[in-house]
Design brief:
mainly alpha, three-stranded antiparallel β-sheet, 3 strands
């Protein structure tokens, strides 16, 4: 999905960009929550997160304050931060919002796109194919983000693009980029979208883009359901992480 690479870190990989540490930590935790590696009801321990990411406790605390403002965690007095409930409808709502905005941007881009930008998109698509073949996950995430960013900029809708960027923070990009089936479907959808853009077919560009996000919602919901998150009495993940 459309989110830049580098938002989620491999375990034990230190974060290095001091001015953005809180953003990086928040993105890492957001990704873990949305992909089901941390479940609703689990506590997030500041010291453990700081140790895992190689940072001090301060940016972790700042990150959790941000996640609290997004209703992803709650602060329980004398107990700490706990992950809030995440329903199937929550997931679908998030992706429907993204799909609606992204679809509108793609439709507008279809009316303004020119040959140089089409060439740029085809070049990115070829680079994506190469990244998929070599299973370069970081590059897949970055190029997928770049592909859609080019389209979004062509829409000349700064505010809509900003709202999409904000909504996309809830997309667990690593979950998708490591999924072989998603990668194959992503390449096919990009090809179809390129055809729609070349033909300046606004409604087809919109529909393809919306399906990109509804498919993403279906995949994530199925994944979380298989983990057992929405069973009547879920306890812990089948392969629980230590509290983070």
């Amino acid at each position: 999905m459309t989110r830049p690479a580098g938002t989620r870190r491999a375990r034990g990989t230190p974060l290095t960009r001091a001015p953005q540490l809180a953003d990086e930590v928040a993105a890492h935790l957001r990704d873990l929550i949305m992909s089901g590696e941390i479940w609703p009801g689990q506590y997030i321990r500041l010291d453990d997160v700081a140790r895992e990411l190689g940072v001090s406790v301060t940016p972790v605390r700042e990150a959790l304050v941000r996640l609290r403002s997004e209703d992803m965690v709650e602060l329980e007095p004398r107990r700490g931060y706990v992950v809030t409930p995440l329903s199937q409808q929550d997931v679908r709502d998030l992706f429907n919002l993204q799909g609606h905005i992204a679809g509108e941007l793609a439709a507008r881009a279809a009316t303004t796109i020119d040959p140089p930008h089409l060439t740029q998109l085809h070049d990115i698509q070829q680079a994506l194919r190469n990244a998929v073949e070599t299973e370069n996950v970081d590059q897949i995430e970055q190029l997928e983000f770049e592909f859609h960013r080019v389209i979004n900029r062509l829409a000349h809708a700064r505010k809509l693009s900003w709202f999409l960027h904000t909504a996309n923070r809830y997309t667990p990009a690593r979950f998708y980029s490591t999924d072989q089936a998603w990668r194959a479907d992503m390449l096919q959808r990009h090809d179809a979208l390129l055809t729609a853009l070349e033909n300046k077919n606004t409604e087809e560009a919109r529909a393809i883009t919306v399906r990109h996000f509804t498919d993403g919602a279906d995949r994530l919901i199925n994944h979380l359901a298989k983990l057992g998150m929405w069973r009547p009495h879920p306890v812990t993940p089948p392969h629980p992480r230590p509290p983070v």
